[in-house]
């Protein structure tokens, strides 16, 4: 059940960030998963990791099929060093939404940090398959290819990343990636 009042917008699901502090009745009686999720996003963006984590946990309790809550909690857990927890959350987010290039990309990053290079490579492949316009996915996949001894694959991915960075007017990233191509 969604809490409604004159002070709250009627369409909370379509808003990425809601100034929760301006709505005291929400702070005292949050009722719906979307409200917890939105407050969690706001807290997360404001640097309140503990508050965001609590809100994402409540979101998941109220709506166990809320893929974005798992994904965002995964980001928080990864940033706090809980790689296994982050991996479990990304697994669940992907189970719920297997068309999110971001979820595969983020899980690949966690797998990379856990030194599961083949798992990271597989996830970067899936992320790129879903959205081939993400230069960081090519860049990171290129690094994994280099670590796995596939220098040609690494060069191709890094060159693709450089081209995408150039197309997006990201000059610093473009230059850095070109330097990396020459190192491989």
Characterization of the model:
The protein is mainly α. 70% of the residues lie in helices and 0% in strands. The protein has 10 helices and no strands. The longest helix has 17 residues, at 151-167.
Oligomer: single chain
What Rg, in angstroms, do the CA atoms define?
19 Å
* Total helical elements: 10
User: In total, how many beta strands?
Assistant: 0
**Percent in helix:** over 70%
Q: Note the gap between the termini.
A: 55 Å
Largest sheet: none
- Strand % is under 5%
Mean of all residue-level pLDDT scores: 87
Topology order in helix (H) and strand (E) letters: HHHHHHHHHH
> Which structural class best describes the helix and strand composition?
mainly alpha
Low-confidence runs? 1-30
Q: Which of globular, elongated, flat, extended, rod-shaped describes the shape?
A: elongated
């Amino acid at each position: 059940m969604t809490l409604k009042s004159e002070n709250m917008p009627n369409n909370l699901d379509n808003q990425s960030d809601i100034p929760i502090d301006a709505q005291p009745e929400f702070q005292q009686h949050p009722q719906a998963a979307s409200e917890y999720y939105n407050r969690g996003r706001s807290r997360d963006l404001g640097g309140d990791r503990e508050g965001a984590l609590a809100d994402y946990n409540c979101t998941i309790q109220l709506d166990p099929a809320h893929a974005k809550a798992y994904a965002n909690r995964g980001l928080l857990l990864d940033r706090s060093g809980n790689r296994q927890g982050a991996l479990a959350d990304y697994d669940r987010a992907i189970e719920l939404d297997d068309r999110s290039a971001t979820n595969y990309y983020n899980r690949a990053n966690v797998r990379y940090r856990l030194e599961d290079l083949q798992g990271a490579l597989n996830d970067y492949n899936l992320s790129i398959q879903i959205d081939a316009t993400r230069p960081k996915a090519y860049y990171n996949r290129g690094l994994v290819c280099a670590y796995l001894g596939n220098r040609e694959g690494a060069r191709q991915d890094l060159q693709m990343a450089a081209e995408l960075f150039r197309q997006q007017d990201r000059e610093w990233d473009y230059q850095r990636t070109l330097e990396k191509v020459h190192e491989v």
